[in-house]
Write a structure and sequence with these properties.
Protein name: NAD(P)/FAD-dependent oxidoreductase
Structural class: alpha/beta
Largest sheet: 7 strands, mixed
Number of strands: 19
Keywords: Monooxygenase, Oxidoreductase
Radius of gyration: 21 Å
Organism: Nannocystis radixulma
Pfam family, one: FAD_binding_3
InterPro entries: FAD-bd, FAD-dep_Monooxygenase_BioMet, FAD/NAD-bd_sf
Length: 405
């Protein structure tokens, strides 16, 4: 039995104090599992509040929801989003050229993908971590990491120093922890795509609630999810990296409208109906790194293996990492042994998904008339292969009561 903090009767870790850098997806989740082990845990987030600029929306896949279920949070967090019934793929003329149906996923995988605003997910996780006894500090930017005998010390921008047995970097693709402790790590690679998104009310858009529509436009890619209640959550991808970074929001809107001027008219309606454009974000990934840990420091989530959004697995992989790393710290005799076990268990899976995401993203690039004709006819085959890879990712399970118990 455990109490509300997940402590009573739980196995205890040899680690007693942990610093978790990053208050996004992996960080608060990791903190909750560490609290289950009786570890005094402090989450350090550079943003000054939980409501900072954290992006638009994402999908929580069944494998990620399984981790949240282990924490007793799956139902509550799913309630902050909406189930995704599936994805329809359209060409620039609006003709459906393929479908991936998710409606049987509860039976197949135990859960159905949930679309959720990123800010809502971050808030839910950080609140749950605090309720379970983790100290969560905003405006706590780490500027130096120093390993000393039997401990690691993080120095904050304020000058304050904090010591712990381990420091765990969950601070995303531009990880400060990675830069400070693994200077030989490769820089994130540009995927060839930029992303802009937003939330709009556009009742005239011909979108079925609960479905995501992916449009291969003539000059850019557009995705839209029809959330219950009539709101449209959307994103736009193109490769105009310099242009998207250099213009103001209304110039961005005009640029997006121009890129989709020959595509389905509802796309322009949605873009015009959006009060505030979010982004742009230049999309990067990390295909592989020589190592994920050094001494008493370990990276996880996007800090170790960033994937582009094109696989729909970034948040779910971060959730899996949090469970597996906590379990390794529970079972190993020393942090370094736990980190090595964690990396060995996770590397193959996550790097395969990063490669698949890059391949998916490459398919969003604009195609000439001949290539578009070929794509429209071959997409059903490609989607069957993609659905198989997706099913393998969704079916993956990481168990808390595994290896050492």
């Amino acid at each position: 039995m455990t109490n509300s903090n997940g402590l009573a009767g739980a196995p205890r870790s040899r680690v007693r104090r942990a610093l978790v850098v990053g208050g996004g997806v992996a960080g608060p989740t990791l903190a909750m599992f560490l609290r289950r082990l009786g570890v005094a845990t402090t989450v350090l987030e550079a943003r000054t509040s939980e409501r900072g600029d954290v992006g638009a929306f994402l999908g929580l896949a069944p494998n990620g929801l399984q981790v949240l279920a282990e924490l007793g949070l799956a139902e509550a967090i799913a309630g902050r989003g909406a189930a995704c019934q599936g994805m329809r793929f359209e060409n620039a003329r609006g003709r459906c050229i393929g479908v991936i149906d998710h409606r049987d996923h509860v039976q197949r995988f135990g859960a159905q993908m949930v679309m959720i605003r990123r800010a809502a997910l971050h808030t839910a996780l950080i609140e749950a971590a605090a309720e379970r006894g983790a100290e969560c500090r905003f405006g706590a930017r780490v500027v130096a990491v120093d390993e000393r005998p039997n401990e690691v010390v993080a120095r904050l921008e304020s000058g304050e120093e904090l010591a712990a047995d381990v420091l765990l970097g969950c601070d995303g693709i531009r990880s400060q922890v990675r830069a400070l402790t693994l200077p030989d790590a490769p820089a994130p690679a540009y995927t060839g795509l930029c992303d802009v998104g937003g939330f709009a009310r556009c009742p005239e858009a011909p979108l079925e609630p609960g479905w995501t529509v992916m449009t291969f436009g003539r000059r850019a890619f557009f995705g839209a999810f029809a959330a219950p209640g009539g709101e449209v959550w959307w994103f736009h991808n193109n490769g105009a990296r310099a242009a998207m970074q250099a213009i103001d929001p209304e110039q961005q809107r005009a640029s997006i409208l121009a890129l989709h001027r020959d595509d389905s008219p509802w796309i322009a309606d949605v873009v015009r109906a959006t009060p505030t454009l979010l982004g742009p974000w230049v999309l990067h990934d990390i295909m592989t790194m020589p190592r994920w840990h050094a001494g008493r420091v370990c990276l996880l989530g996007d800090a170790a293996h960033a994937t582009s959004p094109s696989a729909g697995q970034g948040a779910s992989l971060a959730l899996e990492d949090a469970l597996v790393l906590s379990r390794c710290l529970r079972d190993a005799d020393a942090p370094q042994a736990a980190f090595a076990r964690f990396e060995a268990e996770r590397r193959g899976r996550v790097e395969a998904i990063v490669r698949q995401a890059r391949k998916n993203g490459d398919g969003k690039a604009p195609a000439g008339p001949v290539a578009a004709w070929f794509r429209d006819r071959m997409l059903p085959l490609f989607l069957r292969l993609g659905a198989k890879a997706q099913a393998e990712a969704f079916a993956h399970r990481v168990e808390w009561a595994a290896p050492g118990t």
